[in-house]
Predict the structure.
Amino acid sequence: MDLKELQAIKQRYNIVGNCDALNHALDIALQVAHTSLSVLIVGESGVGKEIIPRVMHDNSPRRREKYFAINCGAIPEGTIDAELFGHEKGSFTGAIGESEGYFGAANKGTLFLDEVGELPLATQARLLRVLETGEYIRVGGQEIRKTDVRIVAATNVNMRKAISEGRFREDLFYRLNTIPIQMPPLRDRGEDIVLLFRLFAMQMSEKYHLPRIELTENAKQVLKKYKWPGNVRQLKNVTEQMSVLCKERRVDVDELLQYIPEDEESTQLAVIQPQSGGSRTYENEREMLFKILFEMRSSVSDMRHELNSLRKQIDEATYPASSLTTSYHASNAPQQYDTMAQEITEPENLNLNDLSKVVLEKALERNGGNRAKAANDLGISTRTLYRRLKDYGIN
C-alpha cells in the first residue's frame, strides 16, 4: 500500500499516527479486506482495535451488506447463544417470539466479535461449527440454517494462556487466527502520543469553545515516557480533564503530573539520584525519619478528632442536652476521657509541624525545586504537597 492510499484511509477514519506498527496493521487489514478469511485482532484494551474491522468491511465486497459489532463480554452467559444464533418462540422464559440472531441478520455481511476471549465454552463450540461449515441451529430449534458471514474477532486476553488453562478452545483459536493483526500499545507509538493529545485538545476546544491547551517541550517528553496502561482511551480522558480544569493553557511538567496517575507500576518517571563517592553519610536515614514523622502528624491529628468525636457521643448519652450547663465541661466531664485527650494532643509538643516543614524543604532542595518530583519522593500526591506548602508558607 502506497503512502497516498494510507493517508487517505487515515483521513477517512480519523486515524492519527505514523508509527510503523500502526501502518503495518492498516496495511494487513486492507490486503485481506477483499477475502472472507477470519481475522483475529490482538491488543491491549483501549488501543483502538474496533477501527480495523470497520476498515476491512468498508473496503470489501461486503461493504453494501450489514455490519454488526458485538461485545461478547457484555452479553450474559445465559442469553449469548440466543443473541448470536437466534432462538425459536418459547425456547426459554421470555422468548415470546422468534429471533434470527446476529448470524442470521448479518448474512452476506460482517460480524465483529469484540472480547471473543470471554465467550463461554459452549458458545465457542457453536462458533467453531459456523466457521467450519457455515451452519448453525437456533436455540430451541432443530432446523440447520446456513449463513455466509465474515468473522473478525478481537481480544485483549493472552490466548495462549487461556488455552493452557482450558478457558478457550485451541481449535477455535486457530480458525479465528487465520490472519492475525497486532495493534500496538500507545506507549510504543512515540510521537503519535503527542499528535493524539493535540487532536483531543483541538476537539475539546471546538466542542466547548475553550482555548486549546498546549504542552511545553518537557511536558511532551513526560507524556511520551508514561506507560499509558489505558492506552488511547486513557490519553483522551486525561486530555479532556486538562482542557476543562487547567487554568494555564500552556501546560508544564508540574501541571501535567497532576493528571497522570503517580503509580510506580504504570509510569516510567522515577528518577534515580546519583550517589556521590567518599565517606558514608546518614542523609538517607535522616530523610526516612523525617518522612515517618511527617506521616505520624496526620495520624495523630486523625486520632485526636476521633477521640473528641467519641467523647462528645458519650457526653451526649450520659448528660442529655436539657441538663447541660455552661460549667459542665469544666466540672462534670468524665475524667478518663480528658486524660486520654491530653495524651493524644501531647505529640503537638514535639513540634511535628516544624519537622514536617523540614521534610518538605529537604525534598524540594534535593529535587532542585521540582514540586512533582518532591511529592513523588515523599510518597504523596502533588495536590497534598501544594496544600502543605501553603500551610507552612513555603514559596
Q: What stands out?
A: The mean pLDDT is 82. The CA atoms of residues 26 and 52 lie 7 Å apart. The longest strand covers residues 150-155.
